[in-house]
Amino acid sequence: MPICPEINPIRDWRSARMLRRIIRKTEVDIVHAHSFKAGYISILADTLPFRRRNYALVCTFHNQLHRYDNILKNFVTAAAASSIGKKADHVVVISRALLNEAIQMMRLPAEKVTCVYNGINPSEFAVLPPPSQFRQELGIPEDALLVGTVARLIPQKGIQYLIEAATILRDRFPKVRYVITGDGPMRQLLEQQVQATGLAEIITFTGFRPKIDDFLAALDLFVLPTLEEGLSIAIMEAMAAAKPVVASDVGGVPELISAENGALVRPGDAESLAEGIASLLSIDEAKRAAVGACGRRLIVERFTVGQMAQEHLRLYEDLNFRRRRGRGANAAPAPSKE
Q: What pTM did the predictor assign?
């Protein structure tokens, strides 16, 4: 169903009416809205006249609340999220960090919020293409150490700090090359930054790539210098590909990254990022492989799409049980089937 990303009263009203028609036609038991905007549309659909809600509404929040430079925008976002969360029957968040935000900043009761981690399919990254395939495509020497990131090129992803870190590390690691995969409104500005710092020979922009398995296969180290993050799928995929990860200590990132599988660095700090990268480039290939293997084990054990689906199913069954019993969204949970 189409949803306008920005607040647009006319289009939002149309989306709400469309959602209401779908609900009425299909007689759903649960409506699950992903993102603040989808939650807003779902609440709007619920307020349309002549229809009493006879389904459970679940809203998933994927991002941190205070992620903008504008204080007013942060306040409005937090207030809107809090309102949506209070009107929903249950709120799902994708990391423990967001769970704490929901309880402390949105003032939601703890029993109304559940953390369900994002999940991926690790088997998609169990067997990767030969590393030489991607390197040959971009003309990267076989003996180069390759550091890469994949992200939408927007300010929140902090790619400008990776370029600064590359400047810091240039003399210390002359054989290191960098690849930035992804596109976005900051691309031209970032390319200008690379030119201005004289790094054009060692930093390559690939633009958007529909598949990144060849990119990951070629890497020695994955980096995400993000300034805000709910729980990064890009990091999870790099870990599933058994790559060591250097990432910012923000949001849900510390729930993925530790000293055993990578390095956490201060957000918005190129010096800290450079040291994190250096710490993993300085060890030998076998040790880096062991660090990467540790990350893959964590993904296989705790962050699979199957686990994510099962946790959502348990939540849906619980909410449906409460709804049918007429006991409200915060009543005692359904009896265990075990």
A: 0.89
